[in-house]
Amino acid sequence: MSNDIDHMADNESATGRRLDRSQYSLEFCDTFEGPDLHSTKWIPSYLPQWSNTERARARYRLDSGVLALMIEEDQPPWSPEHNGGLRVSNLQTGVFSGPLGSTAGQHKFTEGLIVCEAQTEQRLYTPHYGLIEARVAAIADPACMVALWMIGFEDVPEQSAEICIFEIFGSDIGSDTAIAGLGIHPFGDPLLHDEFLKIQLDADVTDFHTYSADWTPDCVNFYFDDQFVAKVEQSPNYPMQLMLNVYEFEGAPPSPYPKKFLVDWVRGYQQADPAAARAKPASTVNV
Predict the structure, then answer these.
(1) How confident is the model at residue 15 (pLDDT cuts 50, 70, 90)?
(2) pTM
(3) In the prediction, which pLDDT does 279 show?
(4) Of 44, 224, 240, 282, which is least packed with CB atoms within 10 Å of its CB?
C-alpha cells in the first residue's frame, strides 16, 4: 500500500491544484429528487446478462433528494455460480450482451461467463472523455465496499477497460481517515496496463464528499473535494458507462441491516469548447 500512496510523489507539480469546471458544460445530472429513479438515466440491475434482471436487481430508496443504495437482509447473491455469496445493489447507465448462451457481454470479471439473460442494448449515458463525479457518503462496515467506476460499453470486445473513480472498503475507514482505490484496469484492452492506486484521504468519508475523475485523451486526473490527488497517464479511447454500487462480501461478521450507501448527486460534463467537442465522438446524453 505504501508504494501506491507514494505514487503521489510523481505528481508533485500538480500538488495543490483544484478542479476547474469552467471548461466543461454539464450534460448528465441526477439529484435523486424522486419519487423514483429516472429510467432514462439508470438501469437498476448489476450486469444482468451474467445472472438475470431480478436476481441482480438493486435495492434502493429515494428520500428528500438522497439516494440510498442498500443491501438488505433478505437480498440474494447476484451470481452465486460465479461470485459466491457476494450481494450487490448497482445502478448502471448502459447494458449490452450477445444472445442467450453466447459469451458476448460487458465486464467479463471471471472465466467461463455465458449469457444467462440476453439484454436489449441500452446506451443511456455513455460519455467518451469528460468529467465524471459524485457526492457520496461511504459505509464504515467491514463487510461492505462502495464504488463509482466506468466500463467500456464492450460491443467491441477489446473496448473493455475500467476507470475506477473511487472504491472504498469499510475496513479501510477510520474516524478521520480512509484509503480509497482509484485508477485503471485494462481487462481485455491490449492498449492499456493495470495502474491502480491507493490514496489516503484525511477525512471522515462516512460524511458526504465529492469524488471526481477528469478523463482526457491522454490521462485521467482524480480529485477529492475538488483537490487533486492522483493522475494516471493513459486513457481508454471509447465510450464508457457509469457503474454506481455497494457490495456486501460473503463471510464477513454480521452487522445491522439495511446497509445504506448514500448518494447526493452524480454529474457528467463534456468540454465546453465546441472545437474540442467536434474532435471526438459525441456521447449519449440524458440530463
Answers:
(1) low
(2) 0.90
(3) 52
(4) 282
